[in-house]
Write a structure and sequence with these properties.
Helix content: 25-40%
Radius of gyration: 15 Å
CATH superfamily: Glutaredoxin
CATH topology: Glutaredoxin
């Protein structure tokens, strides 16, 4: 299948649909406070927006409050933030505590497996449908409140 040209909302990174249909990789994420892993039952049957970020990444930090808002407004979607702060769970916990996020949960990709899988750039966000198939991805920060971005998210959501 030929790659689909990327859409680019105003002032945003490009939406890349060239990996559409690829399955979600295993999510080697743990809660940095308890070391408990996330399991498929935490997101199975729901669209997932997987966001790779780090506390040292300025564009990542810029979009985190927008992801928090998205997670609060769009309940049909599971927003998973996967920190790439290798071996630094305290940095992730401190950041989440300081920001007082109510909807986002802190998850840590301890070994950076997802970062390697998606090419190492940050931030990167990948939207999966309820069957765990990729819809699109974005490398770079995105205005998650932009109506065009919200429309692109709607592609993975069940009708309300």
């Amino acid at each position: 299948m030929a790659p689909v040209p990327a859409a680019k909302p105003k002032g945003a990174a490009s939406i890349d649909r060239s990996h559409a249909g690829e399955p979600m990789p295993a999510l080697p994420l743990v809660n940095p406070a308890s070391n408990a892993p996330i399991g498929p039952s935490d997101y199975a049957g729901r669209p997932v927006l997987l966001n790779l970020w780090a506390t040292w990444c300025a564009p990542c930090i810029r979009e985190m409050p927008l992801l928090e808002a998205l997670a609060g407004e769009e309940r049909r979607l599971k927003v998973l933030t996967a920190s790439q702060d290798l071996g630094a769970p305290e940095k992730v916990l401190t950041y989440f505590e300081r920001e007082r996020f109510q909807r986002l949960e802190p998850w840590l990709d301890r070994e950076g497996a997802l970062g390697f899988h998606f090419g190492g750039a940050l931030p990167v966000s990948v939207l999966y449908d309820a069957r765990g198939k990729e819809v699109w991805r974005v490398t770079g920060d995105l205005d998650w409140a932009d109506p065009e971005v919200r429309g692109a998210i709607d592609e993975a959501l069940p009708a309300a």
